[in-house]
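Dock shikimate-3-phosphate; give full complex structure.
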Amino acid sequence: MKHIISKKSFRLAGIAKVPGDKSISHRALILSSMCIGRSKIKGLLESEDVFATMNALKTLGVKIEKLNGYWFVNGVGIFGFKEPTEYLDLGNSGTGARLMLGAIMGSSILANLKGDKSLSKRPMGRILTPLKMMGAKIISSNNEKLPITIKAPKEVFPINYSSKISSAQIKSSILLSGLAASGRTIFKEPNESRNHTEKMLSSLGANIQSKTLEDGSYKVELDGNPVLRSSNINVPCDPSSAAFLVVAAVICPESKIELKNIMINKGRNGLFETLKEMGAKINIFNKKNNGGEETASIIAEYSQLKGIAVPSKRVPSMIDEYPILSIAASCAEGKTVMDGISELRVKESDRIKIVSNGLIKAGVKTIEKAESLTIYGSKVVGGCSIDSELDHRIAMSFLILGLISKEPIKVLRPSTIETSFPNFYKIMIELGANFTKA
Ligand code: S3P
């Protein structure tokens, strides 16, 4: 498939089943590999990113298999990965690469990691620095980017580390390494990032505590060398994938859709809060505890939106949602200001630049600055081609924009959507989107 064309659509309607959460799927595989015993995973996201992590774990000697719709992982413990004889190829996945680097620290092995063109441009220094403090030896000829060779130490040192960036990937990499440390690992970040690693570690039996400090920063402490017990893990549906469907319904006239079992963790629901502030009719109901994570049903319907200033404190809870929020902002009355978003420049693509340039091509006025993006809502003209730049969220966002553009929008290299949301195209067609493949 070379491209997808998206055309004006009305009345998106129906109940859609969003796939499993990507963050939790990576963690479910990695952490159950580090348990003793056999774990059972329900609802795992079966996408390219998650399969990249799964294949890396298999290369490290972990037996993982699918039986009757469930995934089973035979854990090897915190210190039990085998030295790989081939590259660990993490494809497009920053989460996979960063978490795996931390996970192998206890196993005293040498491993070579690589990724695709997009992942090889992304900064790894942010985790290599703390992992070196914990005893890792690192070789990278690409300026602290993949490909990287890591030699895990004989003994992992616990560290007390303050990160300047609020990042669940940095936090998780350090905590996974901290599992093998001889003592207590302490991690601080300016604002709390998604807490799935902490929650899952706690449920598997680790001694882990976290709290928000008086100055608003967040601290987590983990004791090394716990016994992690295998368990049954339920993966709820991904709010970051749901985000595309919700925005599609909110901007397409006469639409109303329902999504079920969507995770509503407070570290992930920033987009829904922001859309509501913009005037979107989004009803979140039927809240339940689903194996440690809260889930809910969501009904979203067509709404008149107004632009707002998005509080920068909210960035960690909607870090992946700025591309699709930008699409909603393009349809809103007035301007939307998104500040404090410099991290978007080092995601699967430079999302500030790619979104801004794409919107300008589609006839929307934007102002791009180093750390912010302002979007002036207007009638969207469209009639342009947008390259995905190997960024799934860019591809899906511009396909949603095409639904309300005067002229169609063509998205090039859309197969990157397979990294996170393999049935996106099918679900959108079923809801009534006017998409065609070529
Ligand atoms: C993720 C954390 C986020 C997010 C990414 C998934 C995770 O990255 O952008 O898509 O699963 O930990 P940062 O925590 O580095 O911002």
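Observed: Residues 23, 95, 167-169, 172, 193-194, 319-320, 343 surround shikimate-3-phosphate (CB under 6 Å).
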